[in-house]
């Protein structure tokens, strides 16, 4: 929360004013959150960007052979004979129109959150960074385990 | 309302109503209008929490783009919780924002909210005042949350001391709810609450 103000240069307050400033900040943040202003400003609470159109277009398809073989978890309708479903890399399948509508909004499987590549360079950078961080944590843990066990 | 959203809600509606969890976990959904755009949710306060014995009403607004966008949910019943605004009932919960997924349902939302009542996340607060109390004075937080559950949600635990303090402020002409908010925000310190109310 504080970062938002720091980024915008709101941090040049004398120490004496500091607690007053923080109090005010808290009130502003509370008001913004209460009236869902963050949502409207497209601030932190956003879904990840859409899956890359190329990937979506090339998802493998399947024709439903018989009814009673399960339901689509997006629209909750039972699959019917001759409907087309798309299979995404995590092997989950959904009606073509249902999954396309979702993936043009955000890049993850509605069931297991497996992420598909996006065409947003900033998000891809962020995702790489996150992955690297995780790998580093695992490395450190392995190191720790090898030293102390 | 877009057809897909209404149809989806209709299907879910049956699911929630049929589900055994309705009885077990005490979650409920009711229609508010005929076109499925607005619903009324209800969750029971989970056991072993300050919300136990309380019944909490939720406003659920279904966007035209549902289930591709999450429903808009807020507490109608006033509640003292770090992730729920004590003023507007607005909720800070990831699945209602960036962690929403199209396979989630009203049932998942209600169960997640019930889980939020059991396990607050004070580091991602909606209500900074409540979150601060939760972190710095757990005992006071517990008593205050129990009191709010008693007054607004029909919970069982009456707090004579708190009720008396509010009564005193009401006799001085303060609105009852405002008195409760001020006292709750200042750890039931009469002097500081009075100072804030009359400043
Ligand atoms: Zn579908
Ligand atoms: Zn999946």
Automatic annotation (TrEMBL), chain A:
Protein name: RING-type E3 ubiquitin transferase
Taxonomic lineage of the native organism: Eukaryota, Metazoa, Ecdysozoa, Arthropoda, Hexapoda
A molecular-function term among this protein's GO annotations: zinc ion binding
Residue ranges constituting the RING-type domain according to the UniProt record: 72-113
Taxonomic source organism: Aquatica leii
Keyword Zinc-finger in record: yes
Main EC class the enzyme belongs to: transferase
Similarity section: Belongs to the RNF181 family.
Catalysed transformations (reactions): S-ubiquitinyl-[E2 ubiquitin-conjugating enzyme]-L-cysteine + [acceptor protein]-L-lysine = [E2 ubiquitin-conjugating enzyme]-L-cysteine + N(6)-ubiquitinyl-[acceptor protein]-L-lysine
EC number: 2.3.2.27
Protein's UniProt keywords contain Cytoplasm: no
GO terms of biological process kind: protein ubiquitination; ubiquitin-dependent protein catabolic process
Record's keyword terms, sorted: Metal-binding, Transferase, Ubl conjugation pathway, Zinc, Zinc-finger
Pfam families reported in the protein's UniProt record: zf-RING_2
A cellular-component GO term for this protein: nucleus
SMART domains attached to this UniProt entry: RING
TrEMBL record, chain B:
Enzyme Commission number: 2.3.2.23
Residues at the active site: 92
Coiled coil: none
Record-annotated UBC core domain positions: 4-154
UniProt KW keywords: ATP-binding, Nucleotide-binding, Transferase, Ubl conjugation pathway
GO molecular function: ATP binding; ubiquitin conjugating enzyme activity
Residue ranges constituting the UBA domain according to the UniProt record: 161-199
Entries under Gene3D superfamilies matching the protein: DNA helicase RuvA subunit, C-terminal domain, Ubiquitin Conjugating Enzyme
One Pfam family hit: UQ_con
Family the UniProt entry places it in: Belongs to the ubiquitin-conjugating enzyme family.
Protein name in the entry: E2 ubiquitin-conjugating enzyme
């Amino acid at each position: 929360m504080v970062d938002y103000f720091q980024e915008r240069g709101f941090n040049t307050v004398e120490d004496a004013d500091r607690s007053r400033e923080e109090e005010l900040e808290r009130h502003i943040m509370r008001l913004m959150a209460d009236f869902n202003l963050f949502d409207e400003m497209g601030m932190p609470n956003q879904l990840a960007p859409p899956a890359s159109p190329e990937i979506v277009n090339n998802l493998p398809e399947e024709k439903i052979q018989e009814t009673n073989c399960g339901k689509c978890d997006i629209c909750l309708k039972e699959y019917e004979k001759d409907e087309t479903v798309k299979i995404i890399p995590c092997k989950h399948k959904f009606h073509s129109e249902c999954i396309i509508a979702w993936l043009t909004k955000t890049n993850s499987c509605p069931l297991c959150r497996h992420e598909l590549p996006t065409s947003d360079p900033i998000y891809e950078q962020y995702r790489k960074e996150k992955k690297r961080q995780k790998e580093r944590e695992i490395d450190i843990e392995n190191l720790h385990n090898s030293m102390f066990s | 309302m877009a057809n897909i959203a209404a149809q989806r809600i209709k299907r879910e509606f049956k699911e929630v109503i049929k589900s055994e969890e309705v009885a077990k976990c005490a979650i409920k959904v009711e229609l508010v209008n005929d076109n499925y755009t607005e619903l009324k949710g209800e969750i029971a306060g989970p056991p072993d929490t300050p919300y136990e014995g309380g019944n909490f009403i939720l406003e659920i607004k279904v966007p035209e783009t549902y289930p591709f966008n999450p429903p808009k949910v807020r507490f109608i019943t006033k509640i003292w919780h770090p992730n729920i605004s004590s003023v507007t009932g607005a909720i800070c919960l990831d699945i209602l924002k960036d962690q929403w997924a199209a396979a989630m349902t009203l049932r998942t939302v209600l169960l997640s909210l019930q889980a939020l009542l059991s396990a607050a996340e004070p580091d991602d607060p909606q209500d900074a005042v409540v979150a601060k109390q939760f972190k710095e004075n757990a005992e006071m937080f517990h008593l205050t949350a129990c009191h709010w559950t008693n007054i607004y949600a029909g919970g069982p635990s009456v707090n004579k001391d708190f009720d008396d303090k509010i009564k005193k402020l009401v006799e001085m002409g303060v609105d009852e709810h405002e008195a409760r908010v001020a006292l709750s925000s200042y750890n039931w310190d009469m002097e500081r609450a009075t100072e804030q109310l009359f400043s």
